[in-house]
Each structure stands twice: as structure tokens, then as C-alpha cells.
Design goal:
single chain; 7 helices; 51% helix; elongated
């Protein structure tokens, strides 16, 4: 198997990579820039990957990305994920609702719980969430979970 190296870099590319290596937003960007700089100095792919703590597969992918896309290919890009089920307006409405007692909305309890919020969201917006997701939503809105404490009632002091 032949040794792989990055194509020779221009002085401008080296300067930009050094800048990214020193001031990159994430350690992933800095590691990728370091990998390319070491490869440019003549280190083989396997040894360079080991030096920067990359797998051989990730090192080969980084090299291919750099060769096809340049320095921009080494930068972190926003990751796409699933679109939230609840929009910003709905979240604001839920935030306002959580600041009131559940009794004001027809529930026979004093505290909001995950299942209770799931029921409210289902009835109001027609969106189904899991209990865990509802608890996470409450936490992100700044509410914390408090477990109910049982009180032992005091006995009748007048009884004989």
C-alpha cells in the first residue's frame, strides 16, 4: 500500500491552516488543521492520524475533504436535525401556562408533571410528546422537577 500525503500546500494555505489550528472554534477543527499541516510536512497518514488522535478512516476522510473542498471543508457546519414539534409561539404559550396552577386549566392537581403537560399539549395543539420530552421541555423553559413529599398528619391531641 502506498503512503498517502496531502498535496503540497501554498504558503497562503499553510498560514490559513496554522490560523485555524491556533484559533479554531472547536477542537475538531483544530485537530483537522493539525492533521493537514503534519501531512504537509511529510508524515504518513497512519502516523499523522495517531499523533492527532484520529482513526485511520477519519484521517482519510479528512484528507479527501480537504483535497476536494479546501480549508472550508475542515470547518464544522451546522448539523441538521429533526424539526421541533413545537414552534416558538407554542413554547411561549406553554411557558405562560406553566407559570399558572394546573387547576386553572381544569386539572385536579397543584403541580405540573410530565404526563399532565403531555395531556395539555395534546388537547391544545394536537401534538403528542412523550413524558420524558415534556419533562425536558419544562427543564429548558427554566422549571425544575420537585418530587412531592408526603406529610404525616399529626394525631388528635384531644383523643384519649
Amino acid at each position: 500500500m502506498r503512503a498517502r500525503y496531502v498535496s503540497p500546500l501554498t504558503a497562503e494555505e499553510v498560514r490559513d491552516l496554522e490560523q485555524l489550528y491556533q484559533h479554531g472554534k472547536s477542537h475538531y477543527e483544530r485537530r483537522r488543521a493539525h492533521f493537514i499541516l503534519l501531512s504537509n510536512q511529510g508524515h504518513r497518514l497512519n502516523e499523522t492520524a495517531a499523533l492527532v488522535g484520529m482513526s485511520r478512516k477519519a484521517a482519510g476522510r479528512t484528507m479527501r475533504c480537504f483535497e476536494t473542498g479546501g480549508i472550508a471543508a475542515l470547518l464544522d457546519h451546522p448539523r441538521l436535525g429533526r424539526t421541533p414539534k413545537l414552534g416558538p409561539e407554542q413554547r411561549e404559550q406553554i411557558d405562560a401556562v406553566l407559570r399558572h396552577s394546573p387547576q386553572e386549566f381544569g386539572y385536579a392537581t397543584n403541580n405540573w408533571t410530565g404526563p399532565l403537560l403531555v395531556d395539555y399539549i395534546q388537547k391544545t395543539f394536537g401534538i403528542s410528546l412523550s413524558d420524558d420530552r415534556a419533562c425536558i421541555l419544562m427543564h429548558r423553559l427554566g422549571f425544575r422537577r420537585v418530587r412531592a413529599r408526603r406529610k404525616i398528619s399529626k394525631g388528635d391531641t384531644q383523643a384519649k
